[in-house]
Amino acid sequence: MANSIESGWIAQAQPYRSFPALTGNVTTDWLIIGGGFTGLSAARELAARCPGERIMLIDAKRIAQGAAARNSGFNVGYDVPDFTRETAAANMAEYLARTRIDIAGATENERLIRDLGISCDYLPTGYFYAVHDPARFAGAAALADVLRDAGAEAQVLEGDAVPARFGTGFYRRALFIGGGGNGSLQPAKFSKGLVDNMPAPVELHEDTPALGLSPASGGGAVVTIPGGQIRAKKVILALNGLLPRFGYKRFRMVPLTLTASLTRPLTAEEDEAIGRPEPWAVLCPIKGGTTARLTQDRRILIRNTAEYRPAGVDAAGVAVRRQTHLLGLRRRFPSMTEADIEFSWAGTMAGSRGYRFIFEQASPDVFLTACCNGNGVARLSMLGRLLVQYATGDQNELLTTTLSLAQPGLLPPDPFLRIGVAARFALDRRKVADEV
Ligand SMILES: Cc1cc2nc3c(=O)[nH]c(=O)nc-3n(C[C@H](O)[C@H](O)[C@H](O)COP(=O)(O)OP(=O)(O)OC[C@H]3O[C@@H](n4cnc5c(N)ncnc54)[C@H](O)[C@@H]3O)c2cc1C
Predict the structure, then answer these.
(1) 18-30 per-position pLDDT tens digit
(2) Which end of the chain has less Cβ packing within 10 Å, N or C?
(3) Residues 412 and 251: beta-carbon distance below 8 Å
(4) Which residues contact 132 (CB under 8 A, 6 or more apart)?
(5) Helix or strand holding residue 176 (H, E)
(6) Does the CB atom of residue 210 touch ligand 1 within 6 A?
């Protein structure tokens, strides 16, 4: 099979239901713009909190086929701290606060998978941080201590246990992190399951780009769409890295484009040769390193590019980046060739300074959230729910925590941002070259 430039997850989650585009002039109580994890969780929460009110969700393209179906499928409650026990005093409180949100999101995802019966290859078995050069992860044991202090399960793997666990000699030191909902899933099947189980009052519309947003006279907002407009009492913006296109948060977030590849399933003989390891999900503790998975259906996922490209990457660009994926794949599984890669694709996410996220009432009737910093499956699912709680006047402890973390630091304008991010990523990649 030729290499396909589409998300391998989406290809395997087919068929998708389709939803009609919206045209003409309509009015609604609630309008959610963007049908990823943020928008879908906001819609579910609104349906529960506001019975009898009109709730509409529009997406410029297909619902649940943006980053929601293009990510690496890590559902993360316990992220890895970027500090040690020695510096924990200054950092632990914020890490724990953020982790409370992530755990709430990851465990709620688990609950939905279970209660709604979403079949998405979910494995509640934690994930790993792993490296090729053990010297680069000399702090693994200290990190495990910090994680255990925070309530996670954490265990360092060394020596023969590492290749035995992963079925490749590439990794030589690893840290297992479990608990708090940590696990992995097939992201397209999961997000499609959320759509398939969306409570009936939510009206879903695809191929309906919001073109502009302005305050309505007498309250609410008017959103322009092709051939019409939507007048909404309240608007929720769930736009991921495209939020700045609406004029919000241009200097608080960095839209990033990531690319990934997925191989064909290993043959029974290949699986036997690597010792039939249990599925695994691995992140790199060093910035710029590779994300890899051995999935339940015995495919290898490799994600090892990230760059500042607000316009995304086209098919030719994905094909170029596939060579970097191939490099990472062959380092782990040398017998693999480019022909073994079935799918390669690109997706977007948003980063910010200091792992902080965007979460605010931007004007009396417009609410927005964004910036997962790599943990959108759990964090943005929770932030979407919390944003609805905020917009409906709820008050609770997690919301207070969320608001306290909701102001990322300022970033410079382009071209300084573009040059700065490119230089930083290039430096990271040089430092981490043998981990790719
Ligand atoms: C390759 C890759 C790997 C990743 N791996 C992980 C991982 O393993 N774990 C993890 O937690 N996170 C991961 N992430 C991040 C995570 O996928 C994202 O943070 C998350 O999916 C973003 O959710 P969202 O709802 O904000 O955005 P999206 O899912 O992108 O949804 C936003 C939606 O808004 C729509 N939209 C945009 N503009 C308009 C408009 N004008 N009008 C209407 N609709 C519009 C888009 O079409 C899109 O469907 C990864 C991301 C990528 C790209």
Answers:
(1) 999 999 999 999 9
(2) N
(3) yes
(4) 170, 171, 172, 331, 434, 435
(5) strand 173-178
(6) yes
